[in-house]
Specification:
The complex is a heterodimer of chains A (about 120) and B (about 500). Chain A has about 120 residues and is α+β, with helices and mostly antiparallel strands. Chain A is built from three helices and five strands. The longest helix of chain A is centred in the N-terminal third of the chain and has 21 residues. The chains are: A alpha+beta (about 120), B alpha/beta (about 500).
Chain lengths: ~120, ~500
């Protein structure tokens, strides 16, 4: 299970990047890690700096992608985002957290669900 | 951009202006609310987010700090949803700021951007004109209540979009007005009447005296004799509220959220009958953040305590102070509040646990010590504060089956109103409104007895061994009886009637 889902995730991320570029995002970084968090994709969408979490699903699996971004995942993304902003000395830029869900059918076709501004810092 | 939006809050019984300051910085998206918000205020973040997007606006990016000033007073309730939403829109230049300076904004948001009614609108609006505010934006359901205050334009809105378009000058909304006179002239609409009660002429007379002077009453009688029925009809013989009194009562109901949207002004005297399991806090008011209790909700009206001795002793004893002073001050660690509590106490009880004590037709099965314990619940000081004690005996067969209708409430109310008018003229220059609330000095001044009355009272005091307070009560009640007859001096017959309403003193 573990290996299969990692492969699904890896492949998913590649497809995700293609999709985001198609949507006009400029990819800046991938798999950014801080001590306590990680972000799959960092991109630029217009004026916004966007932190994207990719969730790949094979058709028929349970749950919604947004449901998969729970409090601990949010915390990890927020931590990584803060670290990224600080290390790169980025100030005065509006940021956003997006979640990109990828559904894959057995035939290998994908459909996307990009949720912009999925959550806020509280 | 820093934006300031005016809103309001309640402290005790009075409203004050709260400034909602909103500013944002670019960075990770989020909002924080500061300025002692309670849980409902903190939750407004989520409601505001959806209300903004569902109203067709763009949710502004960046990290928002929302400050509710003054920051040292606790803010509660969801009424800051609308000011926060408007402030965030103004901060992102989706709403113009010109009108915000002299406008107060109140309202809870639903997720679709619609406005829900909030509590305490009347006292908040009362504080606005003196603070230089010209207009108030309120949810439609609160419009009537807000319009009771003169000197401020009431802009009733249905949703966030309407409020925003009004502030932008895209639409103009006519200030909501209400005809206070019409609310009062609608008159009495009670479905019950004193003529429904069969027999009990003695009790009816006593209640008339009580209503005329604002005296407290204790009714003792076997089950089914009509105590509750009589008490429920007492409001129908009380004189109507004046506009000032009605506003006072409405304020109390507004802050407790008991005002129905259909009836913005309470024009009828309140009748509260809390169950005997009610706690002392429920009766007197209180809580971490003080709220008015039943004594305050009965302000200017009647507090009816059925099954009087069944109440907890603590509950009965806390009544003593408001009975005497007409106000309650509730102090808590967080804050303290003073609420008015000028009510008429009407208590009803059985003469013993089985209810048949002293009944000529039925036998009481209670052992003597149980009767004693039942009565022991009522302390002397408490009984002393109740001016009229009436026995309500079981109806005789002939009375039960007769069709003879008694006097109507209207006829009694006219006499009561006349007696009250006499009192209002008498106490014109003081704070006192009725005989029951006379101060010792006023008792001396206004309760003039003729010689016959004086000697009767003297011998009664000696023979019945009455307390000083009892003596005072007799004078006050006899003053009311004399007022009902429009007599300047108190005569022996008035004193005699007043003495017979002190049956519990005589019993001791």
């Amino acid at each position: 299970m573990g290996k299969e889902s990692t492969i699904l995730g890896k492949e998913g991320e590649a497809i995700a990047i293609d999709h985001l570029i198609e949507q006009g995002y400029k990819i800046i970084d991938r798999n950014y890690r801080s001590q306590q968090g990680e972000i799959d994709i960092i991109a630029k969408d217009g004026d916004f700096l966007v932190f994207v979490e990719v969730k790949a699903y094979s058709m028929g699996s349970f749950g919604f992608p947004l449901g998969a971004v729970g409090p601990s995942k949010k915390k990890s993304m927020i931590h990584a985002a803060r670290t990224y902003l600080m290390k790169n000395n980025i100030k005065n830029v509006n940021c956003r957290f997006d979640v990109l869900a990828i559904y894959r059918s057995w035939q290998g076709l994908s459909s996307f669900d990009l949720i912009k501004d999925a959550f806020h810092v509280s | 951009m820093l934006v300031k939006v005016n809103s309001a809050a309640i402290s005790g019984l009075d409203g004050f202006i709260v400034e909602v300051e909103i500013d944002s910085v670019r960075g990770l998206p989020g909002q924080s609310i500061v300025g002692l918000p309670d849980a409902a205020v903190k939750e407004s973040r989520d409601r505001v987010k959806f209300a903004i997007t569902n109203s067709g606006f763009e949710f502004p990016p960046g990290y928002f700090t929302i400050n509710l000033a003054p920051a040292d007073i606790r803010k509660e309730g969801p009424l800051y949803d609308l000011p926060i939403a408007v402030g965030m829109l103004a901060s992102s230049e989706q709403v113009k700021i010109e009108k915000l300076k002299e406008t107060v904004i109140l309202g809870e948001l639903s997720l679709d951007g619609g406005l829900r009614p909030v509590n305490g609108v009347l006292p908040m609006c009362m504080a606005m004109p003196e603070n230089g505010m010209k207009a108030v934006i309120v949810p439609k359901e609160n419009a009537d209540e807000a319009a009771l205050v003169s000197g401020i334009d009431v802009i009733a809105c249905e949703n966030l979009l309407e409020a925003a378009r009004y502030l932008n000058g895209d639409i103009s909304i006519k200030p909501h007005t209400i005809d206070i006179g019409a609310l009062f002239s609608s008159g009495y609409s009670y479905e019950i009447d004193f003529s429904d009660v069969k027999g009990q002429g003695h009790a009816k007379r006593a209640l008339e005296v009580a209503a005329a002077g604002g005296h407290n009453v204790l009714m003792v009688g076997s089950p089914g004799s009509g105590k509750t029925m009589l008490a429920r009809r007492l409001p129908t013989i009380l004189p109507p509220l004046s506009i000032g009194e009605a506003l006072d009562v409405t304020k109390l109901y507004s802050i407790t959220g008991l005002l129905s949207p259909k009836k913005s002004l309470i024009t009828e005297r309140p009748f509260r009958s809390p169950h005997h399991t009610t706690s002392d806090i429920g009766i007197i008011g209180g809580g971490r953040i003080p709220r008015p209790g039943e004594v305050s909700l009965a302000h200017m009206g009647i507090l009816f305590l059925d099954e009087f001795p069944e109440f907890e002793r603590d509950v009965l004893e806390v009544l003593r102070q408001p009975l005497e002073d007409g106000v309650v001050t509730i102090a808590r660690a967080m804050s303290s509040a003073t609420y008015p509590a000028e009510f008429m106490l009407v208590a009803a009880m059985n003469p013993c646990p089985c209810g048949n004590y002293m009944d000529p037709t039925k036998n009481c099965i209670c052992p003597a010590h149980k009767v004693q314990r039942y009565w022991g619940k009522l302390s002397g000081p408490l009984l002393d504060r109740i001016d009229l004690h009436i026995e309500v005996p079981r109806l005789k067969k002939e009375e039960l089956t007769s069709y003879a209708a008694g006097e109507t409430s209207k006829a009694i109310r006219e006499r009561v109103s006349r007696a009250r008018d006499v009192q209002i003229r008498r106490f014109e220059k003081t704070k006192v409104r009725c005989n029951a609330r006379m101060l010792p000095k006023q008792v001396k001044e206004f309760c003039k007895l003729d010689t016959e009355a004086e000697s009767l009272l003297k011998s009664a005091i000696l023979q019945l061994k009455m307390s000083g307070r009892s003596y005072d009560r007799i004078l006050k009640v006899s003053r009311t009886i004399a007022d009902l007859e429009d007599s300047e001096v108190i005569k022996a017959c008035h004193i005699a009637e007043a003495i017979q309403y002190r049956s519990m003193d005589r019993g001791k």
